[in-house]
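Form 7-S
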Amino acid sequence: MTSIAVVAANGKSGKLIVKEAVDRGFDVTAVVRGDNHTAAQHAIIKDLFDLTADDLKGFDAVVDAFGAWTPDTLPQHSTSLKHLADILSGTQTRLIVVGGAGSLYVDPEHTTQLADTPNFPDSFKPLATAMAKALAELRERKDVRWTYVSPAADFQADGERTGKYQLNGEELTLNAAGESIISYADYAIAIVDEIATGNHIGERISVVRA
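Output:
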């Protein structure tokens, strides 16, 4: 049985990833700071920054669903990811990161990111910048079996679960309807699929509704 831990499992994406994994027969541990409000069979009640290598020992994968939104906490995208990478360093445990769309490239030369385009909302630029920095730092890690999963540009927390998605790479990709959109529920399917059958080690992948 596949054994995973979901960090920040009480969040919107974390809860759905936990549910998807449990429904698929995974043995799931929720890592939460307070009460466990997920469907996970087990829980580690601990702050992310207090996690140790022993806490995460033996899992097939650890999903990082941590998010920070306020100006004073945005740097934690880098510090939290570094902490998880450090305690998983040299192990066979995969680190699957719930990423952002702002760092997806919009040109084949990979010189312009979505966050750099004129229509990208100013209000989201600080978040996109912080997440892009964390990804750039993660790319330098050769000691961790990481995979960074970017959602589509329109990432809908309450969107429907269609059960279908399209897997892409580093570039922003539109679906057949000309949209860059995915629900949290379909994104959760992609995360669990990557753990179950994917092998994008040391890569950033992206998903859009099919």
